[in-house]
Amino acid sequence: MSINCSSCNALVEREDCHKNRYGEYICKKCQGAGVRFTRAHRLLYLQAWWEPRRLFWLTVTVVAVLVLLWFYFLLPELRLYDFIPAIFR
């Protein structure tokens, strides 16, 4: 079975290449030259890794902003700010 090397695009046998953690096949010649991964595939891997975390932090941020706005509009109705000047007298 022949596979294209992700680094040099050479057609190599499967036994003569290594599959890295990003799912790329790197031939032994490129490995010997110090190539461990290609930048384009690594960016795609990081993007896929970050996607669920990005949605989580976006949700946390939206909830935090909504809670702060709720307190901002609720504070005048509760008149909780009346005791603050009494503390500093």
Low-confidence regions? none
Structural class call reads: alpha+beta
Helices and strands, in order, run as EEEEHHH
Radius of gyration: 28 Å
Distance between the termini: 84 Å
Classify the helix fraction into a percent range: 55-70%
Shape: rod-shaped
- Strands across the major sheet, in which order? 1-2
Strand content: 5-15%
Number of strands: 4
Count of domains: 2
Tally of contiguous helical segments: 3
Work out the oligomeric state of the chains in this entry.
Answer: single chain
- Largest sheet data: 2 strands, antiparallel
* Average pLDDT for all residues: 82
Description:
This protein is α+β, with helices and mostly antiparallel strands. It folds into two domains: 2-32, no CATH class; 48-87. 55% of the residues lie in helices and 13% in strands. The protein has helices at residues 28-32, 39-78, 84-87, and strands at residues 2-4, 11-13, 17-19, 25-27. The strands form two sheets. Strands 1-2 form a two-stranded antiparallel ribbon. A hairpin with a 6-residue loop joins strand 1 (2-4) and strand 2. The longest helix has 40 residues, at 39-78. The radius of gyration is 28 Å and the shape is rod-shaped. The termini are far apart. The mean pLDDT is 82.
